[in-house]
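Input structure tokens:
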């Protein structure tokens, strides 16, 4: 049987933990000189730490983005306050005078993009620096505009820096992922030299038995027909790779889960001695030495 492919970090971590559990359970019965338990645990810890560092880096970026959002709110309030003060002398409608403050396109609407906010703030700073008599106390000044610009650039730089940190953490995380996958593959190769293809101990390490067949396909075409007050006939279509089948029933209101009642090799089975006046769900699975396939569609029958 083919081994499960490892495409995700979570699947690699799970596979590694199963190997550790297998080594712990089997003990001295298996020798892994090239992949000792200590090295496997180290690779697992390194992967977990790398994932944790990546998540932490993302959280730091989220915090820095919140700082930028607050900074943009301050910038917006400053631009709004500046505009409203100049409205008292330049008028409440747009005029060419307002272009000196960064407003454009015939509108006094507040800028809503980072680029436009920065441009408007820069224009206000330049105008107030050239016209200091138009400053208002310590609130609307060229110095305050520069202070806001510096804080805005710093917030953006902090996010850009954290983006680089996140990329670095992703690289490290992926490198540890590759190491862990190679470790799992190495363990498998060492086990191949010690375990027979159908040795049940393969499963203790989380591996499929190499000599086992692929799991059968799902049973289809299940039909259940009541043939007496407490008996039902079942039949289904052949499943690819099936060696035999398992028939399960669940009595509604009585059974918490399905229970096996037969393992026929044929494509039909008679269910007898069902409880009277009961509703019963029936499913069938296909089985071989590689395991059990998925359950069929549920069929329901009601006894008299």
């Amino acid at each position: 049987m083919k081994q499960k492919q490892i495409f995700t970090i979570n699947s690699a971590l799970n596979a590694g933990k199963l190997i550790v559990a297998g080594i712990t359970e089997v003990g001295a019965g298996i020798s892994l000189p090239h992949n000792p338990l200590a090295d496997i645990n180290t690779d697992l810890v390194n992967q977990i730490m790398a994932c944790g560092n990546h998540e932490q880096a993302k959280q730091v970026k989220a915090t820095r983005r919140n700082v930028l959002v607050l900074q943009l709110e301050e910038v917006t309030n400053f631009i709004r306050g500046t505009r409203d003060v100049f409205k008292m002398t330049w008028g409440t409608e747009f005029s060419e005078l307002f272009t000196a403050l960064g407003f454009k396109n015939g509108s006094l609407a507040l800028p809503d993009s980072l680029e436009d906010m920065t441009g408007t703030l820069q224009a206000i700073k330049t105008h107030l620096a050239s016209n200091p008599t138009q400053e208002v106390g310590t609130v609307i000044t060229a110095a305050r505009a520069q202070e806001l610009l510096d804080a805005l650039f710093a917030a953006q730089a902090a996010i850009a820096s954290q983006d680089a940190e996140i990329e670095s953490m992703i690289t490290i995380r992926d490198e540890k992922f590759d190491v862990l996958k190679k470790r799992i593959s190495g363990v498998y190769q060492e086990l191949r030299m010690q375990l027979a293809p159908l040795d049940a101990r393969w499963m203790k390490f989380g591996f499929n038995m190499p000599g086992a067949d692929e799991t059968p396909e799902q049973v289809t075409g299940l039909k259940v027909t009541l043939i007496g007050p407490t008996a039902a006939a079942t039949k289904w279509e052949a499943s690819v790779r099936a060696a035999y089948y398992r028939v399960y029933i669940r009595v509604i209101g009585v059974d918490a889960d399905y229970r096996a009642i037969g393992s026929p090799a044929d494509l039909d089975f008679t269910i007898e001695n069902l409880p009277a006046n009961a509703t019963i769900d029936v499913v069938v699975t296909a089985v071989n030495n590689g395991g059990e396939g998925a359950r069929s569609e549920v069929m329901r029958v009601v006894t008299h």
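Strands lie at 223-228, 231-235, 244-251, 259-262, 268-271, 279-288, 291-292, 299-302. DSSP finds five helices and eight strands in the chain.
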